[in-house]
Known about the structure:
Elements: E1 5-12, E2 18-19, H1 23-27, H2 38-45, E3 49-50, H3 64-73, E4 87-92, H4 102-110, E5 116-120, H5 126-139, E6 145-152, H6 155-158, H7 164-171, H8 181-184, E7 193-200, E8 210-219, E9 228-229, E10 232-234, E11 240-242, H9 248-253, E12 260-261, H10 263-284, E13 294-297, H11 305-314, H12 328-331, H13 338-347, E14 357-364, E15 369-377
Parallel strand pairs: 4-5, 4-6, 13-14
Antiparallel strand pairs: 1-7, 1-8, 2-3, 6-7, 8-15, 9-12, 10-11, 14-15
Amino acid sequence: MKDVYITRISKFLPNAPVGNDEMESILGQINGKPSRAKRVVLRNNGIKERYYAINSQGEITHTNAELTKEAITKLFDDSFTQNNMELLCCGTSSPDQLLPSHAVMVHGLLANKNLEVNSASGICCAGMSSLKFGFLSVKSENSNNAVCTGSERSSTRMMASMFNEEAESLSSLEDQPIIAFKKEFLRWMLSDGAGAMLLENKKNETGLSLKIDWMEAYSFAYELETCMYSGGEKQEDGSIKPWTEYSSKQWLEDSIFSVKQDVKILEEHVISKGVESLEMVFEKYSKDPSDIDYFLPHISSNYFAEKLKTGIKEKGLKIPESSWFTNLSSVGNVGSASIYLMLEELVHSGRLKKGDKILLSVPESGRFSYAYAHLTVC
């Protein structure tokens, strides 16, 4: 089987960075009142800037497919054009429509040639699932190259207008209506953007490449209930009642399509299962944690960073603290694109040297899934 290398990596972040004080002027105020949760959430997550596919006038500037296309286009030059692509893999948790799939919409915008496409759904792990499909295709010689992406356009789901019907409904029931924290929490967490990687069966002739040594993923859905969801409502028994079983009136009044997170379950399991899966992957590949030069953990909030470090230490996994690399504070939580954006920044930082070992770690709180990739700089 072929070795697989990441030979190019790119990103696209829309418009100007948005500071904490500017967020509500762009997303809007629910029920015309400042958020009560915003200050608490921002204090804990440590995010200083993020990007929205919405300009300062409140106009939507990009679809998710357009964000993805812009990132992909940056991979091309005279030596590798869009017509050299053999496989396109796109992962996202926020496609522009239910059907058709995200990847075919991106392919339509590229308008290059007939090729195989694959869409990976899910939440944060969707970007890693996209990468793994491309990795396995090139490794098995099904294709000579693959373009893999992770992208999100979450901002339009976070706009106040998406909650107006529910706020008005609550107003008729109580004097001071408050949108449930499980819904508002994520308004101050999520960001927009896209990342893209070119995978090939040979490394770059000049410059550095990243060899993908292995990829692994785990799901704990068999034992844990849903934590993060959209397009449904959680029931008392932990099951999810899907949007197809609600009336169109309820879609609006209950903000059925808003992104929600059960913060109690998140707090209870996201770190413990992350450390458990990390221990499993080190054991499977007989990997010495102290051998890692760069550890890139996708964390949704700095609130979990110290908890993760503590959990890792308690398990005796000696990942050097000096190896940690993240850009959460400057780009925000971009879901499935976050790991692409972190790796892109590291690659272009000039810090990497041949022989460096990189571990990518991506958790997903949907129903607690975790994905990993081990890379060697060559």
